[in-house]
């Protein structure tokens, strides 16, 4: 019996059958929750939200889509914690007051004609691994819905680069190394 069937039958049952159905539904939702898994550490005593994309506004869907694209093109083959960290850097920028106030504008931002996320300046970017892209969408929605509830694996970073890149950044403090990415904050923000 699937979750939908279980929910439908709840309205037609009484007594012991209803109790069994509620228990079954609780177990199934628990299994679903464990299957989806925590993509980052959840702060003590806070449960993550599991949100259906169907419940999002058109504008929110657009921003979650931009976040998913950023996760995919910046970190599709990084460990899950690294993909979550990339999502956090994007959202940290939105919340910082130093960058645009929405995800799509942060992802597409250019400063002095240089894209803040390098993939966005590359021509003809397309999804090549749909499984990785669907996973990026899942992570984007989860982190977007739970940003305030999750521990940030980037530790508040607003910047990162791959370990094979050597930017000439000044006044930066390393906050984390996850997979091939190194995460930073400006020293004056510490």
Could you explain the architecture of this structure?
With 190 residues, this protein is mainly alpha-helical. It has 2 domains: 3-36, no CATH class; 53-189, no CATH class. The chain is 46% helix and 11% strand. The protein is built from 6 helices and 5 strands. A 3-stranded antiparallel beta sheet has the order 3-5-4. Strand 1 (110-111) and strand 2 form a beta hairpin. Helix 3 (58-75) crosses helix 4. The relative contact order is 0.15.
Number of domains: 2
The helix/strand class is mainly alpha
Strand order of the largest sheet: 3-5-4
Strand content: 5-15%
Secondary-structure element series = HHHHHEEHEEE
Gyration radius, in Å: 20 Å
The percent range for helix content is: 40-55%
| Overall pLDDT level | 81
What oligomeric state do these chains adopt?
single chain
For the biggest sheet, the summary is: 3 strands, antiparallel
Helical segment count: 6
- How many strands appear in the DSSP assignment? 5
* pLDDT < 50 runs, ≥5 residues: 6-13, 29-45
Distance between the termini: 52 Å
Morphology: globular
Summarize the structure.
The chain is built from six helices and five strands; from the N terminus they run αααααββαβββ.
Could you list some keywords that capture this structure?
190 residues, mainly alpha, 2 domains, three-stranded antiparallel beta sheet, two-stranded antiparallel ribbon, 6 helices, 5 strands
Write the layout of secondary structure elements.
Blueprint: H1 3-10, H2 15-36, H3 58-75, H4 80-96, H5 103-108, E1 110-111, E2 114-115, H6 130-146, E3 159-162, E4 172-178, E5 181-186
Helix pairs in contact: 1-2, 3-4, 3-6, 4-6
């Amino acid at each position: 019996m699937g979750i939908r069937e279980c929910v439908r039958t709840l309205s037609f049952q009484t007594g012991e059958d209803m109790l069994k159905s509620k228990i079954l539904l609780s177990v199934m939702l628990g299994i679903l929750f464990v299957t989806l898994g925590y993509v980052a550490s959840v702060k003590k005593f806070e449960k993550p939200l599991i949100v259906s994309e169907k419940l999002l506004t058109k504008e929110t869907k657009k921003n979650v889509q931009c976040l998913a694209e950023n996760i995919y093109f910046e970190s599709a083959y990084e460990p899950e914690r690294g993909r979550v960290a990339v999502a956090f850097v994007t959202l940290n920028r939105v919340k910082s007051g130093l960058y645009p106030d929405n995800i799509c504008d942060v992802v597409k931002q250019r400063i002095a004609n240089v894209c803040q996320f390098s993939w966005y300046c590359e021509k003809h970017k397309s999804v090549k691994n749909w499984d990785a892209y669907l996973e990026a969408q899942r992570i984007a929605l989860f982190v977007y819905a739970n940003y305030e509830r999750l521990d940030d694996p980037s530790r508040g970073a607003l910047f990162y680069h791959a370990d094979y890149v050597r930017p000439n950044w000044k006044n930066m403090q390393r906050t984390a190394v996850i997979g091939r990415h190194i995460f930073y904050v400006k020293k004056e923000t510490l």
